[in-house]
């Protein structure tokens, strides 16, 4: 009897369904999508998956809009699922960003016009280099499992940025990572490179997860709880050794920095960006970065703000390392996808500057930077997927020589996007850098900003090199051709470039929105 | 000495005609957009639209100028709020325009000279494919340059600053088939980035210390800053100015930029964009007023540059490159002038305006000569062209007289005033800077006369050569009217602008609400004495050039340097030996040394930095082995470093 009474005491937690509806919709759709794979005949799957995915994005977007716009919504947000998930202003901004960028990536993933049959392998189990493998490169079938995998990864990212305790965060981290490992290995062309990338990403990802988990365990030992809020309380005064706290913090942060491809934990980035199918690279570069920095911002602000005196200098050094590694190593890259990968390492350094500012401006600046960078990146990879020769994408830079003479429009768009990455005014890249650096200056990080300005001046050189190559070099006689993209890719590139311009000229609405409120816990 | 009131005139909200000032930016931008978007359809009328938008902007600028002239001095500064650009928290960068005498002066210069050069380009670029795109880029440039001078804060200025850099990059690289055009474009872009870095850091310092970047607020509160911050800001702004204006040590890109079409050289690399550095310092006068050390550095940079430009100008055989170094040295004068502080701001701007006229005219003349000579740029292959191109010669010669400062041409008034003001500095400074400026005047006269003789006078050496290096025969001819009219208009400016602006301190009075009252100084030499000296020295330079280059036929190829002293001694023992030993030979050595330093030292610094980065990049790249085990090791090491650092910070 007493035992039963105790059982009755365990109440299911209150769940604010309207707040987490977007995540539930994406997860539910991912499950339906798996069922489609199991029960629909092969020729119907692509169309069904595309329609389902589009509906998912519309549904999740609507649910999010309804929740955020509803009058009952408290201005600063709520926590739900007994505090495991927070839905506050930054989370809503990050969810919208993730949904928008995810939608852009799905457009690239679904495209079948650039590469006949899509960028994905028809049968993932065929070994690379065999006769069957060569045969399937010319078949127009496609592995439509990539759709449910994308949706699962996206749902993982959405939970990751909203997670208010470390255990939820870890689960979300695995939910977002596992599908990504698989998706990296699905390239139709250059299968070996693609599979190698997938294995590398998996091994290193597992390694990083171990760091995260170990850090989590140490922090639990310190605070007696995995909740971010409890850790924050414990840092105010606890009889446990500070070694536990800082060792735990260090390991946890290494796991997060790995996902955000911040140097020196970036080693996987160039190989994986190069090997993965380009639409997946776009998805990783845009959405994973958003999710990882969303997580970093929350952890640093909510749990460790009080100890920032101790860790700030260390992350300061990490940001410098990341910017220097990205800018310097980017100089000698000969593959355009690797070059963008190093650029993303440098950008991760800039984002980290905003993240350690720990002020309202730092938060809103970093959020804005993520939105701006994501759109630019998706458009960049969209353009890269169009420059092809008989073997697939022509990613070696020498093949891009004189591209402006063959395709002035494509070269013009790419030039604009590169200028955005370099941070030239009139592009979102300039505004993003400006707000992040301004926030850092205000928070006393002036020397770091000087380093960042120098790094961005160095990085401008390798963007400029591509522009010079496209405009001023003679085209190679057997150079690549520029594929005329279908509707999906065209929309993705156009929207990416347009947003880059709009956020550069009229960023105030996005900045207002990014600065609407802080984290709650 | 200091004028705390300068630049502090309160701005009022723009109203009436001024509330349409956004048109100044919108008109050229509209032209550029239409020309770029319309594609080949615009080939027939594109250049006309390009000209029309600039002329319309000029007309509006004139109307605005006369309206402002009708107002009292206190009402002449107004601000036009357009929209909030980057509003986030404490930082609110609004996008607004500041209309005051200084910016209006620049608006008239940019749109006025811009219109003339647009018209000239119709003829000059007539045979070019894609002329429409050229006009689109020119329009883009004008729009960005107007934003640079009209913006009401440092961030808006930076925006225009990058915009003109981009347009300049596109236009220098216009002849895409020439490798030197591509490398020149790249060099310009990169050296400008170095300068931009300085400007960006200066802006961030202002933001950090004052929390604002608009001119009104920064200038009103600049005295709250520590003297160290003020010095840092002045030096960083100067670095920005050096990059954009081709000042020492960032001057090497400007001569290379002559690889672009001549109208571009005239508009961007002589009259307007390269003077942005002078604008920046003059605009920031309330900051510079507070730092005598900062101004001293500005003066030193100006003085060094003006000498370097003159001396190297003596050594080049390329028509446009000589003019480019002349631009470098003339901007050196302007930088020197604004470095003098309240006694010099208005003088710098005046020289900027007169220089805008005569240097644009000289460049257009050079373009006209090259247009008629199969695009030949080597002056040793010219000679005696005066009678084939009478209008070009006449207008060019007027510009020449203006540049070397012969009264009553415009350069005399503006340059002379700067030299006199430099002599007015206290103590050794007066003698050093005044002396440098005087020496520069003599050298300017020397190399410009050399240019005049080799191109327009003497034996027509091209007749012996018959064909240019690409095999086409030389048929020198006068250019069409669309090119002649702008040259004539600019020549009128070269003759009259100086007197007009100087008379009754017209310009200084007009600029007073922005730059403060022009102060008089009385130094070691009085004004009349300086005028006599500078004209006399210029005449000496002219005479020297005639003695060296005007009396005997010049070779069509550059004399080999090694044998030069030997042959010179053999031929000139009769009378030139003294000149040789005292002036020409040390001059040659000095110019050779400076050319060497310019090519090896400065380029070497740029290339060396690039090599360092590239080399370390190549070495670091080997760390990216492709093996998962080494990646995992690098992560582990990174993690150990992070952990170690964290624990060390906590427990040390």
From TrEMBL, chain A:
Protein's membrane topology: Multi-pass membrane protein
Lineage: Bacteria, Bacillati, Actinomycetota, Actinomycetes, Pseudonocardiales
Origin: domain of life: Bacteria
Keyword Translocase included in the entry's annotation: yes
EC number: 7.1.1.-
Pfam families reported for this sequence: Proton_antipo_M (PF00361)
UniProt similarity note: Belongs to the complex I subunit 2 family.
A molecular function GO annotation: NADH dehydrogenase (quinone) (non-electrogenic) activity
GO BP terms: ATP synthesis coupled electron transport
Location(s) in or outside the cell: Cell membrane; Endomembrane system; Membrane
Keyword list, A-Z: Cell membrane, Membrane, NAD, Quinone, Translocase, Transmembrane, Transmembrane helix, Transport
Main localization (coarse): membrane
Subunit structure: NDH-1 is composed of 14 different subunits. Subunits NuoA, H, J, K, L, M, N constitute the membrane sector of the complex.
One of the record's GO cellular component terms: plasma membrane
HAMAP family per UniProt: NDH1_NuoN_1
Catalytic activity: a quinone + NADH + 5 H(+)(in) = a quinol + NAD(+) + 4 H(+)(out)
Name of the protein this chain belongs to: NADH-quinone oxidoreductase subunit N
Function: NDH-1 shuttles electrons from NADH, via FMN and iron-sulfur (Fe-S) centers, to quinones in the respiratory chain. The immediate electron acceptor for the enzyme in this species is believed to be a menaquinone. Couples the redox reaction to proton translocation (for every two electrons transferred, four hydrogen ions are translocated across the cytoplasmic membrane), and thus conserves the redox energy in a proton gradient.
Membrane-spanning residues: 20-40, 47-70, 90-110, 146-163, 199-223, 243-268, 280-301, 313-332, 339-356, 368-387, 408-428, 448-472, 484-506
Domain named NADH:quinone oxidoreductase/Mrp antiporter transmembrane: residues: 163-456
TrEMBL record, chain B:
InterPro entries linked to this entry: NADHpl_OxRdtase_5_subgr, ND/Mrp_TM, NU5C-like, Proton_antipo_N
Keyword Transferase: no
Transmembrane annotation, as ranges: 20-38, 45-66, 102-122, 134-151, 189-207, 227-243, 264-282, 294-319, 331-350, 385-406, 431-457, 481-501, 528-549, 631-651
Record's subcellular location: Endomembrane system; Membrane
Annotated signal sequence range: none
NCBIfam families named among the record's database cross-references: NDH_I_L (TIGR01974), PRK06590.1 (NF005141)
Stated name of the protein: NADH dehydrogenase subunit L
